[in-house]
UniProtKB/TrEMBL annotation:
Domain Outer membrane protein assembly factor BamE residue range list: 24-81
Protein name (record): Outer membrane protein assembly factor BamE
Phylogenetic lineage: Bacteria, Pseudomonadati, Bacteroidota, Bacteroidia, Bacteroidales
Annotated Gene3D superfamilies: 3.30.1450.10
Pfam families xref list: BamE (PF04355)
GO cellular component labels: outer membrane
Organism: Jilunia laotingensis
UniProt keyword terms in alphabetical order: Membrane, Signal
Stretches that traverse the bilayer: none
Gene this protein is translated from: bamE
Amino acid sequence: MKRLRLLLLLFPLLFASCGILTNNIMKVQEGMSRQEVSKLFGTPDFRRFDREIEEWEYREASGVPGEWKVVVITFDGDKVISMNTFTLPQGHEHHHPQPIGC
């Protein structure tokens, strides 16, 4: 019985702890500043740039064992110009997307 109570208490925490990306994805809008994105997601896990174009990549466990949820936000200067979300199997942490501008 104690284990059941413990599981019932921990179950909501499991889903609450992996929702920063999920909860904020729909808040990202074209034209937002880097500062606004940082307030939503924090420091990016990965960063790529080429001249004025810069990409910030964020990752979190997707809730599916062995899978990452990935969000890539692209800036031109200080403004968001695009966002891409996808899942990536864990073990592919060194995902190398197409270079910017190609």
